[in-house]
Amino acid sequence: MKILTLVRQVPDAEARVKINAQQVDLEGATLVIDGMDEYGVEEALRLREGGANVEEIVALAVGPKRVEDALRTALAMGVDRAIHVETDEKLDPIALSGIVAQVAQAEGAGLVLVGGQEADWDSQALGAATAERLGWPQLTWTNELKVEGDTLTGRHDVDDGNESFRASLPAVVTTQQGLNEPRYPTLPNIMKAKRKELRKDDLATYGAQPRVRVVNSEIQTRARLNRMIDGKDPQAAAQQLLELLRNEAKVIA
Amino acid sequence: MILIVAEHAGGQLAKSTLEMVTAARESGREGPVTVLVLGQNVAEVANAAAAFADQVLVADLPGLATYNAEVWAAATAQIAQEGEAHTVIIGGSRSGREYAPRVAVKLDAPYLEDAIALKANGNALQAQRYTYLARVTETVEAEAPVIVVTVKPGSFAPAAAAAAGEQYDVELDLPAPRIEVTGRSLEKSSRVALTEADVIVTGGRGVGSPENFATYVEGLADRLGAGVGATRAVVDAGWRPYAEQVGQTGKTVQPKAYVALGVSGAVQHLSGMGKSKYIVAINKDAEAPIFKVADYGIVGDVNQIVPALIEAARK
């Protein structure tokens, strides 16, 4: 089985978000692999290390030149090779899923791993849309995964709790925190990664067109009162807090 | 027509369905507001929905007894096509956001995900949504013969009963589910649901132990009639069930008051509760990021401040 793992690049969670010309401006921001996708890369490696029949692990990224860094990280973690569809076009998840599905088909992948929620666009759509395009089942919010032959078992979160599941490959699995603890690339592996294949593809090959346009972006921070209450005397602090909640904020009776 | 897929559980129409009706009516998109009820033994849900919609389509079928993404997507896309819907509205729950993208692909439609506001702009539809861990509000737009939307729970006022919609039974050609559910662990809380609570008391690792969590977080929540929330760290440590988790990978909440006990305030947590009207933070670390977003903050030990709070609230 071949595993295709999608890698997106997002601003570090602690990075400050700037707006320029009504769009989010990432100039100067620290960019990292989306943590949710990193769980996917790690899981692919663990499936192979755990004895599943994994022939090859391929990482895919779609985005501007800088996205190479995220792919290099995945290569250094241990994926075998990488594909970079280089474009400055901002593709919504439905459009992006067209590329992921075409690559999965061309590569003959049996399992696609995608992050469950994008840290930048907050979207959960990519895995599901990719599964639909491929005509495969999808397992979202997965926090436990086993592959034996063509059988996929594990556990994932649902609306009101979690479920254990069984399904057959091929399938799309979306990953999340709790599934594993991603490894740090070691220096020898970073060196080795430089010699691994990183193929460049042209967006035009895939005929993907954005379907959603970003009209405007705004940072809306609610002004907070930031009123600090002295905690040295717990009784007095508690009394003062309750009074403020009752009489000033009027949020409790 | 505008097609809304009803959310319901335990024979009850969910509040989120009424929120979607409001979103449909406020959007300015034309045509009858139609609610599609998918499930088995859903007559009561359909009756309840009829009071809010222009018409209700009922698919009461054994194949719809339990939710499955592929089945729900196939059912929704079929009805959207047959009814020539130009707008399909699906709930922004975990399951809604799981099958809505499949509906969009089936209909070759653009997808506006997790909308907090919805407005027609000529033939186009504009939606607002939060991005970058809820630090940015983006306005996005799509124009196509049919557009699929998910609506973020809690973003629209629930519609008031107004209509007496006709009900129609519909037939569907459903695929067989390919995922076998081998076990289910549902987390039920006797307390008020997090997404509906006016006040939420949340505990983080700073609370110290599962026992302290029960004493202080649950104790204060009971005193204030509040819902109980937990941070990812607390859930990962096994202190609390996943159902209580607030944040990027848990629930998004917007109560009148959010009381954070021993919560440091990681951005992933803030993205789930940052829209609360008032935020209260109690933490012994004066440098904790939670204080930057707090309206009222106390630097102090939860073990000392909270018993005093519970005692004072008793009076």
Quick description:
The complex is a heterodimer of chains A (253) and B (315). By secondary structure, chain A is of the alpha/beta class.
Structure description:
- The complex is a heterodimer of chains A (253) and B (315).
- With 253 residues, chain A is an alpha/beta fold.
- Helix content of chain A is 28%, strand content 33%.
- Chain A has a 9-stranded mixed sheet, with helices on both faces. A two-stranded antiparallel ribbon of chain A has the order 2-5. In chain A, strands 3-4 form a two-stranded antiparallel sheet.
- The mean pLDDT of chain A is 95.
- Chain B is α/β, with parallel strands linked by helices.
- Chain B has 8 helices and 18 strands.
- A 7-stranded parallel sheet of chain B has the order 7-11-6-1-4-5-12, sandwiched between helices.
- Chain B is elongated and about 60 Å long.
- At the A-B interface, helix 3, helix 4, strand 9, strand 10 and strand 11 of A face helix 3, helix 4, strand 7, strand 9 and strand 10 of B.
What is this structure's SSE topology?
The complex is a heterodimer of chains A (253) and B (315).
Chain A: E1 2-6, E2 9-11, E3 18-20, E4 23-25, E5 31-33, H1 35-49, E6 56-63, H2 68-77, E7 81-86, H3 93-107, E8 111-115, H4 125-134, E9 138-148, E10 151-158, E11 161-168, E12 171-175, H5 187-193, E13 198-202, E14 213-219, E15 227-229, H6 234-248
Parallel strand pairs in A: 1-6, 1-8, 6-7, 7-13, 8-12, 9-12
Antiparallel strand pairs in A: 2-5, 3-4, 9-10, 10-11
Chain B: E1 2-5, E2 8-9, E3 12-13, H1 15-26, E4 33-39, H2 43-50, E5 55-60, H3 69-82, E6 87-91, H4 96-106, E7 111-115, E8 117-121, E9 124-131, E10 136-142, E11 147-151, E12 166-169, E13 180-186, E14 199-203, H5 210-224, E15 227-230, H6 232-236, E16 257-261, H7 267-273, E17 278-283, E18 296-299, H8 302-314
Parallel strand pairs in B: 1-4, 1-6, 4-5, 5-12, 6-11, 7-11, 14-15, 14-16, 16-17, 17-18
Antiparallel strand pairs in B: 2-3, 8-9, 9-10
